[in-house]
Write a structure and sequence with these properties.
Hydrolyzes dipeptides containing N-terminal aspartate residues. Its main location: cytoplasm. Belongs to the peptidase S51 family. Its EC number is 3.4.13.21. By secondary structure, this protein is α/β, with parallel strands linked by helices. The chain has a single domain, classed as Rossmann fold (3-Layer(aba) Sandwich), CATH 3.40.50.880. Helix content is 27%, strand content 19%. It is built from eight helices and eleven strands. The C terminus is likely disordered.
Length: 245
């Protein structure tokens, strides 16, 4: 089977807590004792130095060294030598463009899918782990050469998923309506709406919903379904043609 190991987190910060505070135990369990250093990809934010400082402080507090890819003179070589990869949140379009600009799409895919290097993403970093960034919440502030992403899983994710607020007077589309519009297009893959506080752990061909909140699954042509932490989503990994059912 596929050696991939992924921890796809909806959000970096949960209300009332610090950076990655809500998932730090999951991070330690995921990386374990074999990983000594993590390669951080700060491309989703403009101030990469400040972003790297924040991430380094957190990971060092968990017992891991952190190298930021933007400090490397050869980003491709940094990926090839990495023990684990963490792509942080920010603007998904800016992030994906930088991954293409630095020729990292295929390199990261190979390291994760063939070499089994652990991959962690939060928010935008979770978006780019999927088929495409079509279901991001972000504004297209820059123009990547493609919306196709890393494809580490054969479906899409909507991080920071928000349920409709019955008391709101806002007349714009809800998140659910926007995802339904996406699924009006042919051959669009499943979309997993990850609420803040939720994350998906993928180990080989097994995927499990973790965290403190649930998720909402959208399949093309089907009514969305509600899922609690602990749900086995392995079927999403096995069958990428669920939208045709």
């Amino acid at each position: 089977g596929c050696p991939r190991r992924l921890l796809l987190v909806s959000n970096s910060t949960l209300h009332g807590g610090g950076y990655l505070g809500h998932c730090q135990q999951h991070i330690q369990s995921f990386l374990g004792g074999k990983v000594k250093r993590v390669l951080f990809v700060p491309y989703a934010l403009h101030d990469r130095d400040a972003y790297a400082r924040t991430a380094r402080e957190k990971f060092e507090s968990l017992g891991y060294g952190l190298d930021s890819i933007h400090e490397s003179c050869d980003p491709v070589e940094a990926v090839r030598k990495s023990e684990a990869i963490f792509i942080g949140g920010g603007n998904t379009f800016r992030l994906l463009k930088a991954l293409y600009d630095n020729s990292l799409i295929q390199e990261i895919r190979k390291r994760v899918l063939e070499d089994g290097v652990p991959y962690m993403g939060s928010s935008a970093g979770t978006n780019v782990a999927t088929v495409s960034i079509n279901t991001t919440n972000d504004m297209p502030i820059v123009y990547p050469p493609s919306l196709q992403a890393l494809g580490l899983v054969p479906f899409n994710i909507n991080p920071h998923y928000l349920d409709p607020d019955d008391k709101s007077t806002h007349m714009g589309e809800t998140r659910e309506e926007r995802i339904r519009q996406y699924h009006e297009e042919p051959n669009t893959p499943p979309v997993l709406g990850l609420r803040e506080g939720a994350m998906l752990l993928v180990e080989g061909d097994k995927a499990t919903l973790q965290g403190v909140t649930g998720a909402r699954l959208f399949l093309r042509g089907k009514k969305p379904t509600e899922h609690e932490p602990g749900t086995d989503f392995s079927f999403l990994l096995i069958d990428s043609n669920l939208q045709k059912l």
